Amino acid sequence: MELAYIPSPSHGVLHLGPIPLRAYAFCIIIGVFLAVWLGNKRWIARGGRAGTVADIAVWAVPFGLVGGRLYHVITDYELYFSEGRDWVDAFKIWQGGLGIWGAIALGALGAWIGCRRRGIPLPAWADAVAPGIAFAQACGRWGNWFNQELYGKPTDLPWALHITSSTDGRVPGYYHPTFLYESLWCVGVGFLVIWADRRFKLGHGRAFALYVAAYCVGRGWIEYMRVDDAHHILGLRLNDWTALVVFLLAVLYIVISARTRPGREEIVEPGAAEDASAEDAADDKSEGKTEGTSEGETEAEGGTGEDAGEAGTDGESVDLGKETATESAKSESAKSSETTASASVTKSGKKTEPETESVARDEAGSAKKS
């Protein structure tokens, strides 16, 4: 018995009354929401409109689910169409069984339809959602954990996955948790795409191609560890060959695209300019209201101050008027006194003048007689 291991859930279905809530479907739904949320943020950062990623995802997600299920059913047809099997099980997607290659292929078709309807280029949209898809796959792989499926070879490592029940006839035991390996690998791929996109300004679908190429590398060695039944070609599992071919195509696309269309394209989404103008107008209107309110308050405060100032000024004017009147009265009184004094001096001067002249004539007469 292993001293340390990863336990498997006892069941993957939670019943809410008569409604079954399946963990596999729940993991996929979480992944879809995560991809749309992150893709929307990246799309807006590139100059697109909010909500465009979600609108196109309405086409891409259903197509992707159908494509993933078709790939699984076609490559594992004996699970549904061999003797003793019920072909109706091929439609029971909640029991697990989605092929990522079919999901990407048919999902891309759905995305192309959505992009065409919105008038935007598919490669630009794919670049925006690429890391989100990787993170969505990381979430979706935990659905395999709940279903106790797609595990690897037996192992005694501390992180071995303890399988308690098996639908493929295998003996319960401890196996490589390939679901966990792929989940962690997808997280790393997502961050790799984000870093490379910022560092090299990837455009024209190269960010999406990088995601595909990096995922194929991880899927190749993880697929080699799996022990579930699969078709083999020249000693390799079918998915190994698929990963190899898709990897080469993705790398070839990156090389050719970088030479023919370097840099990142400018996203010109129909209606984006109108949205920006409407947002600017709304901001200006809001700022105008704020400024008007502030000015009104300032005027009101100024008016109150002016009224108080005017009242104070009126009071001061009255006081100054009184003081001025008093000073004027004093000044007039002083002038009157000065005038009276001057008149007196003048009058006395007129009386003394003849007397002086008379004395002078008498003195002169006396001198002549002598």
From TrEMBL:
The keyword Manganese does not apply. Its main location: membrane. Residues 283-292, 319-335, 350-370 have a biased composition (Basic and acidic residues). It is an enzyme of class 2 (transferase). GO terms for biological process: lipoprotein biosynthetic process. A 1,2-diacyl-sn-glycero-3-phospho-(1'-sn-glycerol) binds at residue 141. The chain crosses the membrane at residues 23-40, 52-73, 93-113, 125-143, 179-196, 208-226, 238-256. It is a multi-pass membrane protein. One of its GO terms (molecular function) is phosphatidylglycerol-prolipoprotein diacylglyceryl transferase activity. Its EC number is 2.5.1.145. The keyword Lipoprotein applies. GO terms for cellular component: plasma membrane. It is found in: Cell membrane. PROSITE patterns: LGT. Residues 336-347 have a biased composition (Low complexity). Residues 267-370 are annotated as: Disordered. Belongs to the Lgt family. Catalyzes the transfer of the diacylglyceryl group from phosphatidylglycerol to the sulfhydryl group of the N-terminal cysteine of a prolipoprotein, the first step in the formation of mature lipoproteins. HAMAP family: Lgt. This is Phosphatidylglycerol--prolipoprotein diacylglyceryl transferase. It comes from Streptomyces triticiradicis. The lineage of its organism: Bacteria, Bacillati, Actinomycetota, Actinomycetes, Kitasatosporales. The gene is lgt.
